Amino acid sequence: MLVWTVANQKGGVGKTTTAVALAGLAAEQGLRVLMVDLDPHGSLTSYFGENADYCKPSTYTLFELNKNLTRAEVFKIIRSTKYDNLSFLPASTALATLERQAIGKDGLGLVVSRTVELLNNDFDLVVIDSPPLLGVLMINALAACQHLVIPVQTEFLAIKGLERMIHTLQMLGRSRKRELGYTIVPTMFDRRTHASVVSLRAIKNQFIEHAWAGKIPVDTRLRDASKAGVPPHLFEPDGRATSAYRSLLKQLFQQAAVDRKSSRAVASGV
Ligand code: ATP
Ligand code: MG
Q1: CATH number at residue 69
Q2: Number of domains in the chain
Q3: Is residue 267 scored above 90 in pLDDT?
Q4: Which atom of ligand 1 is nearest to the CA of 11?
Q5: Stretch 155-175: mean pLDDT, rounded?
Q6: Which domain range does residue 38 map to?
Q7: CA distance 90 to 109
Q8: Ligand 1 contacts CB of residue 218 (under 6 A)
């Protein structure tokens, strides 16, 4: 099972859109996909027609159960969508209260890791949507994944936010056995604006190793798809954003294959 987290401490950069687009495309290819909404605002949850104000059980329940988590309990939380192979764990606004509760509570940083481990044979891909702030939820999302996708809006100040996110990764990385790989995904690129062109160049220059070679164009149909509650590739199969997300997904699968090979080599002492 592959586990990817989509995160950036900056808000409104296209995290939820990217999570849904990638998950939708992977499900279309026949993978059993689970999306996990860890944002108290529940954008992903409302994308699929549920309201995080009233959602129960939800990803908050995972934290309530904590040490008593079982596969059966997780399955009670999973919602299916209208689309084949595509399910999700919805968020609740109650998640916002976790930060306060987390202080001094043991094991709360690994709740999502334990959840996805329980589902190892049930899904092929888990995509976690993270809130735009560093706290117990983002820490859970980063601890649970094998690879991180960082959407970055192509605008002035993009690099600042990105540097902050990478600094966070380095801070958290010290407690991981293996360094967390990540892919930077430039989003909302508009080739007609100077800010987009300049910041895309800056991202690619400064983060040569980690920046994806492509970019997600600005495409208002993505907003329409979200309003309609339809994954982007079904809303606009031949859209520019859809084809960009297709090639991003391909790149992420290739990266996962490389990572798997190198971790097997490490395990066998090569
Ligand atoms: P938050 O930090 O609030 O969770 P986010 O990073 O998850 O935000 P999204 O909700 O995915 O960001 O996107 C913010 C808004 O921008 C949404 O209205 C979405 O439909 C729109 N959007 C996302 N990607 C694009 C794009 N490539 N072109 C145009 N609009 C986009
Ligand atoms: Mg979001």
Answers
A1: 3.40.50.300
A2: 1
A3: no
A4: 2
A5: 87
A6: 2-267
A7: 19
A8: yes
